[in-house]
UniProtKB/TrEMBL annotation, chain A:
Main location: membrane
Record-given protein name: Branched-chain amino acid ABC transporter permease
Ranges annotated as spanning the membrane: 35-52, 59-75, 87-104, 109-125, 145-166, 224-244, 275-294, 306-339
Record keywords: Cell membrane, Membrane, Transmembrane, Transmembrane helix
Domain of life: Bacteria
Lineage: Bacteria, Bacillati, Bacillota, Bacilli, Bacillales
From TrEMBL, chain B:
Native species: Brevibacillus brevis
InterPro entries, sorted: ABC_transp_permease (IPR001851), BCAA_transport_permease (IPR052157)
Membrane-spanning parts: 16-37, 44-65, 71-92, 146-176, 205-228, 234-252, 259-279, 291-309
Keyword Magnesium: no
Predominant location: membrane
Compartmental location: Cell membrane
Protein family according to the UniProt entry: Belongs to the binding-protein-dependent transport system permease family. LivHM subfamily.
Lipid bilayer topology: Multi-pass membrane protein
Protein name per the record: Branched-chain amino acid ABC transporter permease
CDD domains per the UniProt record, alphabetical: TM_PBP1_LivH_like
Record key words, sorted: Amino-acid transport, Cell inner membrane, Cell membrane, Membrane, Transmembrane, Transmembrane helix, Transport
Length: 427, 317
């Protein structure tokens, strides 16, 4: 029944979407930094996705919101751009994990290790840290090296992914989850202790100051620039996701996810497919790690805990694993919940406390309830929406249309057998 | 000089190992029956530690702990903790796992991760409300210690951990092998649908498995709190992971394997913590002992996934 109701939903009229965007943009412009208005602008992307219009118009409207409206009305506000680029970083990470979990069905609980690999790759060589183990006083590198290091981070993380993938491929299912979890912890402990015998990661003190990117001598240190860098990377990753999904490799991943044995007997090399999934997912995380390191200008092992891995997994599963719009929505929702809604709520409670209405001990600060919220979300999603908020669509082949096409007359292959069988029944 | 500390290292390793062993039993029982990793088991252990500590703290606040025989106090604490954690285990199964029994394998795993995060924060929340902090110190019941000819000392609390762990493991083995319910459990583990045809109430057996496994985990939590003195809501996760490692090492689904694996892992961890630093000239110290434990997990899963005692499972098609 619910399905029937959903089918009759044709989408939101274009006019409503445009009105929404204009209204919230105006609100953001005139009301002087309203969080609600900012959320309204961000959520207009979801509206655009559900608008009843052609793909082309959707893309144009979406791009206009992201590239023009948000920077124009909120670009001079550091806080909004900070939140927006934070959301973007997590969206990019979640899209990377989507390849591993969503497409290939490999539950990876150590994903943040690849993120860490990218972040450390840039951090070590762009600060004087590298002088500790490379002679010649060549470092730190200037911010202009940020761009090549996007590629370096990608390669380093992909190597990590293959290194993890090779041994891990022998286990599957929940064992794989445990092994990757163990791997993530191992990496974190190693980064935490690799300040001796040779000081490579500077241990728990972390590495600082990591230079901001520079382009043609312009220092791009503010969240405003990172917003665009992140958008660019997301566009790249989304494109890669779409291209992969319908490629030979992508269909092999989906086959492996659905049934390993069947996939194998259809001639798919499990080893290649799984390794490719690990390496691709990891390499995206590496790129995002480089951006993260440059944005924070400081990294230490506490940014790469199991909580982060779980958080990204929550985004993928809540949104709908395997579904690109779902993962984007999930990542945006979870990040905003974390960095904004819970914080707003605790500010609200603080103000109540200051005016003496309620009395809360400090430990009950809602911004510390990340685990509780993640836990409840995971349980509810598992129980009620195991496919996520926007489930992945299966591309269905219309058999009748294929039969009517010029290939339908082929005398060989499955199609000819289908037509023979159906005509045989009738006669 | 290195050998001087060996007896002490072994004693510490045994204490830790028996603790791993009992928690590993919980993993292995659930895995044997449902073929799924009860991720939240480590958190049940943690809840047990908190319940035990709270019972002792409250008795102490009432002034009753002063004159009480320590064994009576420990027994009371254990019983209360076991009842509560057993009930918690059953509740978790009912709410978060049973509705998902037919679902793809990853779905209950996700739900279990959710439960474990939920429990961590709920415990933190309640303790913060009740006591305004969530790092608790457990009142120590046993302070004496036995000297083994001057080469090592066994603290009484460590000895109690070992003895109680052995008692619990023996009781469980007897239960599984000799009683009607134990036989039913083994039957369900073999083949759920055939067992149900044999008039075994599968739901009840699974409930019983969670009840027993969780109450054993809760009891170990009490022992842990007694042995180490300080607890916080996050002790369950890493310990649970290591206990799971122990279960895998011994062969998951196999009770004897879980026991041996636990003791082995405890000894290995204790040895590596004590000797890795001196042997590598200080380059890799005790901070790498967790790396060591996880590496064992990965290596076992890679090269002998059936564990030391398990049988290799052929793929069902």
């Amino acid at each position: 029944m619910a399905n029937m109701k959903w089918k009759s939903f044709k989408g939101i009229p274009l006019l409503v979407t445009l009105l929404w965007i204009v209204a919230f943009a105006a609100a953001l412009h005139f009301m002087e930094k309203s969080v609600i208005a900012f959320l309204g602008i961000l959520s207009s992307i979801v509206l655009v996705y559900y608008t009843n219009t052609s793909k082309m118009i959707k893309m144009v409207v979406g791009a206009a919101v992201l590239l023009l409206i948000i920077p124009l009305v909120a670009g001079d506000n550091r806080y909004y751009m900070e939140v927006a680029s934070q959301v973007g970083i997590y969206v990019a990470m979640a899209l990377g994990l989507n390849i591993v979990v969503g497409f290939a069905g490999l539950l990876d609980l150590g994903y943040v290790a690849f993120f860490a690999a990218g972040a450390y790759a840039y951090a070590i060589f762009s600060t004087s840290q590298a002088n500790e183990f490379i002679a010649g006083n060549l470092f730190p590198l200037s911010g202009g090296w940020f761009w090549p290091f996007l590629i370096v981070g990608l390669i380093v993380a992909a190597i990590f992914g293959i290194l993890l993938g090779l041994p891990v491929l022998r286990v599957k299912g929940d064992y794989l989850a445990i092994v990757t979890l163990g791997f993530g912890e191992i990496i974190r402990i190693i980064f935490n202790n690799l300040d001796k015998p040779i000081n490579i990661t500077n241990g728990p003190q972390g590495i600082t100051p990591i230079p901001s990117p520079e382009l043609f001598g312009v220092k791009m240190g503010t969240p405003f620039y990172f917003y665009f860098i992140v958008l660019f990377v997301i566009a790249f990753i989304v494109l890669a996701n779409i291209r992969f999904e319908h490629s030979r490799l992508g269909r092999a991943w989906i086959a492996v996810r659905e049934d390993e044995l069947a996939a194998q007997s259809m001639g798919i090399s499990l080893l290649n497919a799984k390794l490719a999934a690990f390496a691709t997912g990891a390499s995206f995380a590496g790129v995002v790690g480089v951006i993260f390191a440059a944005k924070q200008t400081f990294i230490d092992p506490t940014s790469f805990t199991l909580m982060e891995s779980i958080g990204i997994l929550v985004m993928v599963i809540l949104g709908g694993s395997g579904s690109i719009p779902g993962v984007v929505l999930g990542a945006a929702f979870v990040t905003i919940l974390q960095v904004q809604l819970l914080k707003e709520f605790s500010n609200f409670l603080h103000s109540l406390q200051q005016s003496g209405i309620i009395n809360l001990p400090n430990q009950l600060d809602p911004s510390k309830f990340q685990r509780l919220v993640f836990g409840i979300m995971l349980i509810l999603v598992a129980l009620y929406r195991p496919n996520g908020l926007i489930p992945a669509k299966r591309k269905k082949n219309d058999v009748e249309a294929i039969k009517a096409s010029k290939f339908g007359q082929a005398k060989l292959g499955i199609l000819s057998k289908i037509s023979q069988a159906s005509s045989g029944k009738q006669s | 000089m290195l050998l001087n500390i060996l007896p002490q290292v072994l004693v510490d390793g045994l204490t830790l190992g028996f603790m791993y062993a009992v928690v590993a039993l919980g993993y292995t029982m659930v895995y044997g029956i449902l073929e799924f990793i009860n991720f939240a088991h480590g958190e049940i252990f943690m809840v047990g530690a908190f319940v035990g500590t709270e019972v002792l703290l409250i008795t102490d606040a009432l002034g009753a702990l002063e004159g009480m025989n320590p064994f009576v106090a420990l027994f009371m604490t254990l019983i209360i903790a076991m009842v509560l954690t057993g009930a918690l285990g059953v509740l978790i199964e009912r709410v978060a796992y049973r509705p998902l029994r037919g679902a793809p394998r990853l779905v209950p795993l996700i739900s279990a991760i959710g439960v474990s995060f939920l429990l961590q924060d709920v415990v933190r929340f309640t303790e913060a409300l009740a006591r305004n902090e969530f790092y608790l110190n457990t009142p120590t019941l046993f302070t004496s210690s036995i000297s083994l000819g001057g080469i090592a000392t066994i603290p009484a609390k460590g000895l109690i951990v070992i003895v109680l762990a052995i008692v619990m493991m023996l009781a469980l083995t007897l239960f599984v092998n000799k009683t009607k319910w134990g036989i039913a459990m083994r039957a369900v583990a073999q083949d759920r649908s055939t067992a149900s045809l044999m008039t075994i109430n599968v739901d009840k057996v699974i409930m019983l498995t969670f009840l027993i496994g969780s109450s054993l985990g809760g009891a170990t939590g009490v022992l842990f709190a007694q042995n180490y003195g300080t607890i916080d809501p996050y002790i369950g996760f890493i310990l649970g992971l290591k206990a799971f490692t122990a279960a895998v090492l011994g062969g998951i689904g196999n009770l004897r394997g879980a026991m041996v694996g636990g003791v082995l892992l405890g000894l290995l961890e204790s040895l590596s913590g004590a000797y890795m630093g001196p042997l590598t000239g200080g380059a890799f110290g005790a901070e790498y002992k967790d790396v060591f434990a996880f590496s064992i997990l990965i290596l076992v899963l890679l090269f002998k996934p059936e564990g030391l005692f398990g049988e290799a499972v052929k793929e069902k098609v």
